[in-house]
């Protein structure tokens, strides 16, 4: 398993590097890249944002292993994960309103503080302290995915008056480097936890200086901005009306809730499946992120001038790949007949599918959901998504360890088959909808926002 993980990591990394170098050579320089003021503004944003992302990814590979190291049972660990998911959905519902009221810059600094406290709680073996840490992690995650983007968009348009057409380029580049940081974070976590022998708590300690630096740079280099608050009840009511009045939006919500709830359960299960067989967890995580990056690169190639496939087709392919992978996992995790290499390959296929799924879903959401109602609609998407994931983890909590994992993959397979039916329903509704097609490229390859 050790050799397989390292060889897979090197192979995936080489594939990603080859695809990205080929794409960069074929792409002519854009207008935004030649503007010094814009480049400096981007740099000020990226310095803080990338540090925050790196600190977030650094904590991912060894979370389950840390709780196991503290001798908690799988059921207790499942409850910790449920607490994290529940706090994410609760804080996610009010994050936009909180950020608008408090100020985007202050919210980013608050993220640095709360996430640092979350990391500090990992030093304790007290179960209640760890539960508090999971709640702080949920708040921090909600701030990470709301405050930073909101600050950038306001500064880009209102303060600097740059063209709005340049915004997708910034976030597409951020999405690419987010994958790169995730790959690097897995290697760094493996280095401090395993190679240096510091144990599974080491990545959390290493994340604290990154968070402190991110907060300090935001305080020094960023200006404050606010936005007019929209009542939370009105936001949700508008989102619900949009959800119920447009069948396309409803089907997208069903697909997102089902697909991403399965991914949350996968995030919980991969460590107990592979760790008993001596898998280097940091390298395995980096391989997952490299597979996801490969999927994103394949998405950009597939929707480019040369192939011109549509996001709806790639969304269907992503769901099919996950269905196949979950069926593989139901056999490779059979008690007494475990096949860790086959499970690892299935996990890599799931991550590859995620690389196809997320840009496809992002494109379809932007086209289907009105911009003014996106926050409200996404709130309604988010609630069933996390509820399904929490339910799955609670079911696993009450299962026998030897059969529970295999049964959970069987349940996830059934959920993904349902997702496939929802995708087929959406495809039937939108197959003649020109709005949901990538425009025919006339120049450089199409590079959608990730």
TrEMBL record:
It is found in: Cell membrane. It is a multi-pass membrane protein. The chain crosses the membrane at residues 46-67, 79-99, 131-153, 174-195, 201-219, 249-270, 282-302, 314-332, 344-364, 376-396, 408-430. Gene3D superfamilies: MFS general substrate transporter like domains (1.20.1250.20). One of its GO terms (molecular function) is molybdate ion transmembrane transporter activity. GO terms for biological process: molybdate ion transport; monoatomic ion transport; response to food; response to starvation. Its main location: membrane. The keyword Membrane applies. One of its GO terms (cellular component) is plasma membrane. InterPro entries: MFS_trans_sf, MOT2/MFSD5. Residues 1-18 form the signal peptide. Keywords: Cell membrane, Ion transport, Membrane, Signal, Transmembrane, Transmembrane helix, Transport. It comes from the Eukaryota. Mediates high-affinity intracellular uptake of the rare oligo-element molybdenum. Belongs to the major facilitator superfamily. This is Molybdate-anion transporter. It comes from Rattus norvegicus (Rat). The gene is Mfsd5.
